[in-house]
From TrEMBL:
The active site is at 125 (proton donor). One of its GO terms (molecular function) is glutamate dehydrogenase (NADP+) activity. Pfam families: ELFV_dehydrog, ELFV_dehydrog_N. The keyword Nucleotide-binding applies. This is Glutamate dehydrogenase. PANTHER family: NADP-SPECIFIC GLUTAMATE DEHYDROGENASE 1-RELATED. Gene3D superfamilies: Glutamate Dehydrogenase, chain A, domain 3, Leucine Dehydrogenase, chain A, domain 1, NAD(P)-binding Rossmann-like Domain. One of its GO terms (biological process) is glutamate biosynthetic process. Keywords: NAD, Nucleotide-binding, Oxidoreductase. It comes from Chitinivibrio alkaliphilus ACht1. The keyword Oxidoreductase applies.
Length: 445
């Protein structure tokens, strides 16, 4: 409709160098026509114009000293996108590709993802164009300390609560938390999530995004009289999301036949051995090509993108944005894929999503399917506030209940607004409506 097209045109004009952000906005807004037509007050109150503009954008210099004594400088970011439902919440990404457009797209997606969890958290995201790969622990510590020396001014347990993302795991969170504590002279356990269990972290946080993805997909498959039993599954990536998606898929009777890292992918027709992948990635921090030294029947192929040329029943892209283009989507459909769940943030291009949906592939979109990580982060915040620590089983049960509810809301929204079975549209509408209603209730702020 005219209102949506006008807003999209303005976003493209104002953010012309930020392709990922424009893509994320377009993917959401084009799904909203039915609800915007039903609610003319959204246009009256300029709601779309407000919802696509971050409340605050923070960019800062991060100087640090490497082991050779040389001063290095990176750029840090924090986008506080929307606080209508709660304090800003979202991860920090340390990766050389990080720029303002990337962080804005992640923050925009995070706003709706967080709303879908049903927990009181707004949307934010941050990071730096720093690459932890090849750096010593001391170099990473010095970088994290410098990063927090600026970030601490902009966060707080009722303001903005960062977590981890690509390149930011328990090690980095520990260094960041230690520096925050040192600067503020206050033990605010809830200021960061993804902490170690020894200092008020939560069980299941490491597993949460991968487990949550599979919980969502399990509900989606059940809605169409399917399940994971006997299914061949491809999972891109080999970080936390991919590893623990593999673990849960296997528990539910599926067989993961391929995984990848930035160098290439392994194909093991007998099923990728999870223990070997964990040893290589979590313990030894090695590349995935070494998997074939332990399993000689497996094959390693250079170029991670080609993983989607393999035949599978279920695809779980868990690596990075835009890894599945129209070409990969066509390969998947040609090879008989039944369902796809986005474990990474925006791993499919718009053209790929449209092609998959048009070809009756059941789609679990990222803002719904990978919400398990932030949901468990919010559960960590709750535990910190109450000075309690829940068991693994209790947190896992809460996570599963949240993911089941997210699927239910996406399904119901899709049906209500005339697109039954389209969980891309359903998730976008369900998340948007929660944020929009909260914004309207709070006036023009």
């Amino acid at each position: 409709m005219d209102y949506i097209n006008r807003v999209l045109s303005e976003v493209a004009k104002k953010n012309s160098c930020e392709e990922e952000f424009i893509q994320a906005v377009r993917e959401v807004l084009k799904a909203l026509s039915p609800i915007v037509e039903k609610h003319p007050e959204y246009e009256d109150y300029g709601l779309l114009e407000r919802i696509v503009e971050p409340e605050r954008q923070i960019v800062f210099r991060v100087p640090w000293v490497d082991d050779a004594g040389k001063v290095r400088v990176n750029r840090g970011f924090r986008i506080q996108f929307n606080s209508a439902i709660g304090p800003y919440k979202g991860g920090l990404r340390f990766h050389p590709t990080v720029n303002l457009g990337i962080v804005k797209f992640l923050g925009f997606e995070q706003m709706f993802k967080n709303a879908l969890t049903g927990l009181p958290i707004g949307g934010g995201k941050g990071g730096a164009d720093f690459d932890p790969k090849g750096k010593s622990d001391n170099e990473i510590m010095r970088f994290c300390q410098s990063f927090m020396a600026e970030l601490y001014r902009h966060i707080g347990i009722n303001i903005d609560v960062p977590a981890g993302d690509i390149g930011v795991g328990a090690r980095e969170i520990g260094y960041l938390f230690g520096q925050y504590k040192r600067i503020t002279k206050s033990y605010d356990a809830g200021i960061l999530t993804g902490k170690g269990l020894g200092y008020w972290g939560s069980f299941v946080r490491k597993e949460a995004t991968g487990y949550g993805l599979v919980y969502f997909m399990h509900e989606m498959l059940k809605a169409h009289d399917l399940d994971f039993t006997g299914k061949k599954v491809i999972i891109s990536g080999s970080g936390n999301v991919a590893i623990y998606a593999h673990e849960k898929v296997t528990q539910l009777g599926g067989t993961v036949i391929a995984m990848s890292d930035s160098g290439g992918y392994i194909h093991d027709a007998e099923g990728v051995n999870l223990d070997t992948v964990k040893q290589l990635k979590e313990v030894e921090r090695k590349r995935l090509h070494e998997y074939t030294q332990h399993h000689t029947n497996a094959q390693y192929h250079e170029g991670s993108q080609n993983i989607w040329s393999l035949a599978c029943d279920i695809a779980l892209p868990c690596a990075t944005q835009n890894e599945i283009t129209l070409t990969e989507a066509q390969n998947l459909v040609r090879n008989g894929v039944v369902a796809l769940g986005e474990g990474a943030n925006m791993p499919c291009t718009d053209e790929a999503i449209d092609y998959l949906v048009d070809n009756k592939v059941f789609m679990g979109p990222a803002k719904a399917a990978n919400a398990g990580g932030v949901a468990t982060s919010a559960l960590e915040m709750s535990q910190n506030s109450m000075r309690l620590s829940w068991s693994f089983e209790e947190v896992d049960a809460r996570l599963k209940a949240i993911m089941v509810n997210i699927f239910r809301e996406a399904k119901e929204a899709a049906e209500e607004y005339g697109s039954p079975g389209n969980y891309v549209i359903g998730s976008n509408i369900a998340g948007f409506k929660k944020v929009a209603d909260a914004m309207l209730a709070q006036g023009i702020v």
